[in-house]
Every structure is written in structure tokens, then in C-alpha cells.
Amino acid sequence: MPMNEFFFTRIQYESGDWDTDQRMPSNVMNSLIEYTTIQVDTEERVVPLSSDELFNAPFCYLSGHKLVQFTKKEGDNFKKYLENGGFIFVDDCNHDIDGLFAKSFEQQMGLLFGTKALKKLRPDHQIYSCFFEFEDGPPTTSQELNGWGDDIVHDYLKGIEFNGRTGLVYSNKDYGCEWDYDFRNKRWYRIDNTKFSVNIVVYALTS
Length: 207
Description:
Blueprint: E1 6-12, H1 24-35, E2 40-48, E3 60-64, H2 72-83, E4 88-92, H3 100-113, E5 119-120, H4 142-145, E6 158-162, E7 165-171, H5 175-178, H6 195-206
Parallel strand pairs: 1-2, 1-3, 3-4, 4-7
Antiparallel strand pairs: 5-6, 6-7
Helix pairs in contact: 1-6
């Protein structure tokens, strides 16, 4: 997928609650427009995981608080999409490694790709330097600092590699909630906390 073509696709799945952090996508897309030369379609697309429309997406987002239990068709599409060069960013809205979303999602990944496929990303992974530099790895979120969820600051992200490329990036840090505000309010922030979202998208489009 050329770097100058982008639209944000949210994955809808039958179990759990997939429709979280509704202002986040427009905030991420605003940052892409502000900081990069990527041509951005500013309308979020919602695509059922069971739909073959998924295979047209350069970047997908999946999140929730509750159970993740794919149907047979959903699991097949998820696996096929990633194995054919797609990219999915998965964010646990609970910020809780022992929560239902985290446990059930990781179990699904074990069923689809094997129990050892999901691994911590190295601190020098390209996602931390492909646009903005994040020398300390993934930025901390206010949910972590304020004791939400498991009250742990996660100093890592996880991922699954396909042919030497990380096609799935998985976060317990609740970035969706961190970026869930009207992009016009960004001017009140001393540091733009959406910059890491730019790295995630740039990595998805260029790696």
C-alpha cells in the first residue's frame, strides 16, 4: 500500500464491544494531515471482520473492554488479512493484562497463530523511530499514571511478525482512550500525545 493513501478502518466483531473511543480516529487522522504528506480520507470506515471488505484496508484498528471470541469466518479473515500483508493495531481499553479483553484476545491469537507468536516488541523496534523518535519505547498514557486498570505502567507493546514484518501490534496501554478527544483541543496540550499514532500508521504503510 503506497504511503500516500490512507483510510482508517475500525474492525467490528460479533463478541464484546468494538465501538470504543469514538473521537479517536478523527484525532489520529488530523495528526497525519498535520505532520505528514499522506493523503488521508477523513471518514472512518467500520468493517465487519467477517466481511471480505477487510482486505481493501491498509490499516485496521480493533479494541474493546469485553470478550474477544471470533467466529470461524472472523478468525479466518483475521489470519488471512495479516498473512497477506495487512496491519492491525489492537488496543486494550481496560489497560489490564489480567482483564477479560486481554486474556481472551491473547487466547484468540494463540489459537490462530500459535501460543508463542505474540511477543514483546524490542525497544529498538522500527515503530519507535520510523517518523518521530521515541527513545524510551512506547509513550506512557494518563490511564497508566493515574492507576486505571491494573495500575501498571507497561513499558512494552507486543506484536506478531509475518515474513519479518510486524503485522499486528498489541497494546495494553489504552491509547484509544488517551487519544479520544476533539482534535481541536490539542492546542491545549503541552506535548501532542497523538504523535505516536503517526508512527504506528507510518510503520503500517511503509514497512
